[in-house]
Amino acid sequence: MQREILRAAGGLDVFGRRIHWLETTTSTSDVAAYLAELGVDEGTVVVADAQTAGRGRHGHVWCSPPGAGLYLSIVLRPSGNLLGHANPAALLTLASGVAIAESVRASTGLPAEIKWPNDIMIGRRKLAGILAEATAQSGVLQHVILGIGLNLRQAAFPPEIANRATSVEAETNRAADRAQIFVQVLTAVAARYRDLQAGRFDVILGAWRALAPSLPSSRVEWDSVSGVVRGRAEDVDEQGALVVRVGDRVERIIAGEVRWI
Ligand code: BTN
Q1: How far is the CA of 36 from the centre of ligand 1 (A)?
Q2: Can you tell me which atom of ligand 1 is nearest the CA of 48?
Q3: Whose CA is nearest to atom 11 of ligand 1?
């Protein structure tokens, strides 16, 4: 793995200068958060072969058996233009989705697409997920732990998600090159993070829209205090919100679990 990283070093910036390789851990994001509190440099990466308490968005478990996936977390310390934005965490969410979809395309040739906010899909099945966890002090963003889980092998999924998940090996019918995918992920995250820090938000939004071609006109629903609301997705705005037409009005969905119907 070390050799591939060195070969790619030109495009990595600070990413992966410090990589902590673990055999098994609870969650790479827990370890990365602990290291971030200790003051490690931006770009520090924690990667594990297996997680015993891998977590996804909305409190879901992220199934992480040994060697079945790429499980990694990156310490980010947003600054510059990104910090000046009204919602840096939302932009990071969009940018990381772009980066992972691009890295899957580059390393496997698979037609990865993004499902809002940042699930990485092959057709209707999920290949990878991203969990961005931000820590702020007195309202100022301190660090973000970007956790990335990418399925390499199919065998690992429990029955309840087996027909909604996929893996690189199931889609390509050949062995996944873990090292190459890892390097592509870091390179793509570095490139898209560079765009963010330089204030190129429109570039990220444009790339996101191009990688989410089935979003316009998809039907979605979500739970609100007054019951289930249904509508038609139209776009994503510069705050990272999903723009949905509900009858004759338009709603912006920022958080919460949207179901695609
Ligand atoms: C999702 O729900 O789609 C996000 C899944 C994120 C999983 C990754 S695996 C590496 C890192 N450690 C965790 O516990 N979660 C993230």
Answers
A1: 17
A2: 10
A3: 147
Return d(Cα 13, Cα 230) in angstroms, integer. 43
Q: Is the CB of 231 under 6 A from ligand 1?
A: no
Number of neighbours of residue 150 by Cβ within 10 angstroms: 25
Question: What's the maximum distance between 2 C-alpha atoms anywhere in the chain?
Answer: 56
* Structural domains for the chain: 2-210 (3.30.930.10), 219-260 (2.30.30.100)
Q: What distance in angstroms lies between residue 165's CA and the mean position of ligand 1's atoms?
A: 14
Digit-by-digit pLDDT tens for the chain (261 residues) are 666 666 666 778 888 889 999 999 999 999 999 999 999 999 999 999 999 999 999 888 999 999 899 999 999 999 888 888 878 888 899 999 999 999 999 999 999 999 999 999 999 999 999 999 999 888 888 999 999 999 999 866 777 787 899 999 999 999 999 999 999 999 999 999 999 999 999 999 999 999 999 899 899 999 888 899 999 999 999 888 999 999 999 999 987 778 888
List of E strands, 62-110:
69-76
Which residues are within 8 A (CB) of 252 and not within 5 positions of it... i.e. 6 or more apart? 237, 239, 241, 242, 243, 244
SS3 42: coil
Rounded to the nearest 10°, the torsion over CA 45, 46, 48, 53 is -130
Atom of ligand 1 nearest to the CA of 51: 14
Separation of alpha carbons 60 and 91, rounded Å: 22
Among protein residues, the one with the nearest Cα to ligand 1's atom 7 is 149
